[in-house]
Amino acid sequence: MLHALSIRSFVLIDRLDLEASTGFTALTGETGAGKSIILDALGLVLGASADRKQVRAGADKATIRAEFSVVPDHPIWRLLEDNAIDFDRDETLCLLRTISATGPSRAFVNEQPVAAALLTTLGESLIEIHGQHSASQLMRQATHLDLLDAFAGLAGDVARCGELWTKYEAARQTRIDLEQTVLSATEKREWLSFAVEELTKLGPEEGEVDSLTAQRSVLLQSERIRDSVDEAAKAVSEPKLEECLAAASRAGERIVRVPDLELLEGRLPETAAAMADAVERALIELAEAQSLVKDLAQHALHDSSQLEAVESRLFALRAAARKYDCLPELLCETFESFKAQLALCEAETGSLNDAAAKEAEAQRAWQEQAERISSKRRKQADNLAKAVMKELVPLQLGRVQFRVAFRDLVEGESGSKGLERAEFEVETNPGAGFGPLKTIASGGELARLSLALKCALSQCGETGTLIFDEADQGVGGAVAAAIGERLGALALDRQVFAVTHSPQVASAATRQWRVLKETGGDGQTVSRVAQLDDGQRLEEIARMLSGSSITNEARAAALKLLEAA
């Protein structure tokens, strides 16, 4: 509900702070005092179009701030979350609108800048304004089916219908996608057959390209290794090398065998012995090297035919990959895809029949649920029409006929809510024909029609704030009293405001605000709002009864109205 409203420098209002509460509040005052200005200000903070002319003369900007107390499970919190607006469910929700005298207007939610369109969306779930020229969402055809379903208690049935519609749409899309796939595959069946036949002969295997590439790399290295081994074998097998070492060994042996060599002074004996040992070791190492080279030659095999086979296979796989426009590593995957597409072509009848059967089953389940809802809707539509027309009689609209008109869905419309659309229609004069509420009803009738509808639908939808702007236009006496009585009944479980010139309506309120126009110290005209106590209410209702000259008779009549409320 509306918790507080603050207005600064807006048209005739220089400064206004209002605190609201539950129940029925009447706004009264003389014509031109500024009651409509308050509604205009509230409309702005709820997203209405702004005009620089609305900024009070001499001010830089106008500011309208509205705070709302919202229950923790209200859907508005989800809307704020979807729009990345920070909030605390335990605190009030603040909407703010500023209008600059020289620049653009700005909108804020909880001090965070937003588009004015978001204020409109938020406002629709917080406040309904019903008047001679507007009647909130009750007048919008798009809301009528939901309102009827709420009246009929069909929320659970409609939710189930939505689930079945989603399944049907999914099955339908699956069938369409399959048809397109089959059609595409059928068109290239001949090419697919050739490709599958060719790739079957080639027989690509998963990971084969990587394996062959690694194998080729090793085979290329083995050829180089074999060449090196052959070169080493040739070198260590050189006959002259062994002969030379043998000759050197014999010469060394002769030297070390010279008699009394060890008796000679100097390093000759020692060096001769070392040379003989070294040559002997060289002969041994040469023999070992020859043996190792021989062993290495046995292990370092190179099969040129195997290399050719590997390279030939790699070439074939890569050529096929280029032909079928894929990476060589993905040739096996591409092959499987081609086989699947070809199989689809060959088994298209069975696949499509299965998909069509699933679609038909999903459609049947949705159709049955939608038909059950339609039957209940049409019964409850008659009950709603009776309830509305019952409310119209005391509102001096007994000649008005009300009905719920149904229209079948056209192709492309969602069936998540059933088989039809609904619209509230009225016939204001016998024989004039039915038409939409907002185009058929006159300005004075529109607010009373809204009140009748709201009373008939009082137990439906979210509990919020209702504002009625001169629902008593052009009526008085018993009709005005009936309007006041219905406004009071609506206010039992929601917040209701009514701008009224009727003392009967004002007396039915639980509290009353008076809007008056004054001349400020600067000579400018300003509008003020005062909350009236019991004595002030008596005087105000007496004024509404008798005019500017309040008589004792008017006070007595006012007291009688207040006591009867």
Key phrases:
Rossmann fold, 6-stranded mixed β-sheet, alpha/beta, elongated, 565 residues
Task: Explain what the structure shows.
The protein is of the alpha/beta class and 565 residues long. Among the domains are: 1-126 and 510-529, 3-Layer(aba) Sandwich (Rossmann fold); 198-344, no CATH class. It contains 18 helices and 15 strands. The chain has helices at 35-45, 76-82, 116-124, 141-152, 155-187, 189-202, 208-236, 239-256, 268-299, 304-323, 331-346, 348-392, 437-440, 443-456, 477-490, 503-507, 534-546, 552-564; strands at residues 2-10, 13-19, 23-28, 61-68, 93-100, 106-109, 112-114, 127-130, 401-408, 420-427, 435-436, 465-469, 495-499, 511-519, 525-531. The strands form three sheets. A six-stranded antiparallel β-sheet has the order 2-1-4-5-6-7. Strands 8-12-13-3-14-15 form a six-stranded mixed β-sheet. A three-stranded antiparallel β-sheet has the order 9-10-11.
